[in-house]
Amino acid sequence: MKENLTKAREVLAQYREDYAVCSKCKICHGVNVQEVNHARFFRGCPSGACFGFEAYYASGRMELARALSLHEIEPTDQYKHALYTCMECGSCQEQCYPVKQMWPLRVIELLREKAVAEGWGLLPEHEPILKRLEETDNFYGKPQADRDKLIKELGVKDASKEKCKVLLFLGCKYTFKSEMKETLKSAVSLLKKAGVDVGILGSKELCCGAPLLELGDRDFFEAFAVENIKRIDAAGAETVITLCSHCASVFGEEYATYMETKTQHITQYLSEALANGNLKASKKAKGTVAWHDPCRLGRRLKVYDEPRAILDAIPGLKRVEFERSKGNAMCCGGGGMAAQAYPEYGLDVAKERVFEAEFVEVDKIVTACPWCEEMLQNGIDGRKSKVKIENILTLLDECVGGK
Questions:
Q1: Strands of 278-393, DSSP E
Q2: Sheet containing 318-320: which strands, arranged edge to edge?
Q3: Rounded to the nearest 5 degrees, what angle is found at the Cα of 235, between the Cα atoms of 168 and 223?
Q4: Measuring CA to CA, which residue among 352, 233, 353 is closest to residue 293?
Q5: What is the 8-class DSSP label of residue 137?
Q6: Could you report the per-residue pLDDT of 283-324, keeping only the tens digit for each?
Q7: What 8-state DSSP symbol labels residue 158?
Q8: For residue 1, pLDDT beyond 50
Q9: What does the pLDDT look like over 376-386, one tens digit per residue?
Q10: Alpha-carbon span 167 to 239, nearest angstrom
Q11: Domains, the chain, ranges and CATH?
């Protein structure tokens, strides 16, 4: 394993043919409307829908990249507001690439990297995130020793000391947010019911680095990535399973090329276990649910079918689709570290998604991302909605038996 994750990094100038020739056709503004039944949900870009001006859509940010590269404008506070309100959900690229073969999301990501490299990027609200990661190796600034306590609490192996077949990568939110501990317990319970030999790294697990990638601090991200990969490979597990969709996208897009270990999101692993009979959902559930596609799990990794197969395997459960689902799915409001700087804006996006759940008349939104769970719960509270939010793992664990 080399000390740098990338030999030759991509830079913004390599995408000049994208941002210089963008015709502002506005396809990035919406969704695949032929797949949506109601015009109320034709918009797909969270920031564009919220702020309205062209600069807040991908087409406008492509122009910001072009103008900056030609020194036509300076990166003012207004410029940074347009850049850092992007939730990097990927809706723009979902629409643009099949038609025009352009990469607007990648342009935005590299524009943020350029901002950090040149010293004008990041916002004051982002500084505490960087400080916590630097001082404690996790997003919340908690003692890493707290991760070791979970080895005993969950009844799993210490993968840094003994061999296990499956290494469960917990992620910062599931580790340190007390209200999400039930999801951890359900994840381990389901794996054990499937007969899996499972372990965790405890304090040897570091933040995956997703927040740093989203902010554009590639150097800081690679420091975490290199060390995580070393520790995971040293554990010698056959498979690494991630719980968080942000961790999953980092593993799939960044780590996988340099790792010896196979990686999967837990919904992929469990859908296989249900299909091959290692798990069986025998207890009935009640209610109508809709699967919320996390942007990082759905559009980034194309994991659409597996979570839906899990829900369809639960007897008694009625599953419906959001108006905007799969490639059209609306962000929860927690992407791109935008809500960290602009919490009211993040809440507005979350409330929009909850409204959509009410529109399709579901009792419960089901997802598998802690960022989505947190934001959608805020949206539910903000709308005083009767809709509930639940992680797919706790729902499945209540209904499933072992092999």
A1: 280-281, 288-291, 318-320, 364-367, 388-391
A2: 318-320, 288-291, 364-367, 388-391
A3: 85
A4: 353
A5: S
A6: 999 999 999 999 999 999 999 999 999 999 999 999 999 999
A7: E
A8: no
A9: 999 999 999 99
A10: 6
A11: 12-121 (no CATH), 128-272 (3.40.50), 279-401 (3.40.50)
